[in-house]
Structure formats: structure tokens, C-alpha cells
Amino acid sequence: MGTYQKTNVIRILESQGIAHEVFEYSVEDGQLDAISVARKVGFDPDLVFKTLVTSGKSTGINVFVIPGNCGLDLKKGAEAAQDKHIEMLKSKDLLPLTGYIHGGCSPIGMKKEYPTFLEEMASQYEFIVISAGKIGLQVKISPRDLVTLTGAKYVDLV
Question: Fewest beta carbons less than 10 Å away: which of 67, 86, 112, 132?
Fold first, then answer.
């Protein structure tokens, strides 16, 4: 399975006995957007999900997991989070709050458990691919297992 270093995400999946597959990809070309990553790991961009973290006026930090080829509809996100207004978390705030850096953020294994919302179309898939918690590593997982692990709610977000 390659020479990757195990991340917290991989350790959590293993400790919980959750079926998963790890995929490494090259970061040398600097193309780290979800569509480029999908191409590098050989999956349809619809199946490669990105993790976005927002800050809400009244609810604080919320986590959204959406297909990499889509954008988060902030109005739908705010509604899901039951907040009047949310905005994307600044990159500099990501590491201290989640333990992850931009491009390597996973909904699994954050420093704290934050409300997590998964784009509802994920429920139609046998598996999705998400960050394994480090740039250059992705993990394939059942969306049902992701929901179980993170307490995520399926919501229309895009």
C-alpha cells in the first residue's frame, strides 16, 4: 500500500475496524484542487469530496463535506447549521482549530468534534474519497461509515 505515513484519520479507521483504502498522489505539480486530485487517484470527481470549514455568527465552527467539483452554497450551509450567516474559515485559523492544513483537511479526527454536514448526494454512492488528513493522501470510505464516525447529517449543500 505504498510508503505513506499513517495519519490520525487512518489510525482512527483502523481502530474502529472501518473498511477503507488509502491512495497516495503526487503534490509536486502544485495542483491540489479536488478535480486534479480526483484525476491523480483515478476516481470520478463526483466521488472525491472536499472538506470545508466555516465559522458561523451564532454556531461557531461547522464542517461541510461536498463533492470536489462543486462549491458550498453558503445559504444552504447556514440553514443546515441553523445560523443566520456563515463564512469560510480563514486558512490561518484552520490548523489551530482542526489540526489540519488547507488541502489536507479531513472531517475525521479533528481536534474537536464539530457539527458536520455531508452533501446528500453522497448517500447514493457506495463509497466516496476524502482527505486522509495530509496533502498527498486520500482515503476511500463508505459514506455511511463516515456518517457513523463523525455524526454527519446528510443535507443539500450545493
Answer: 112
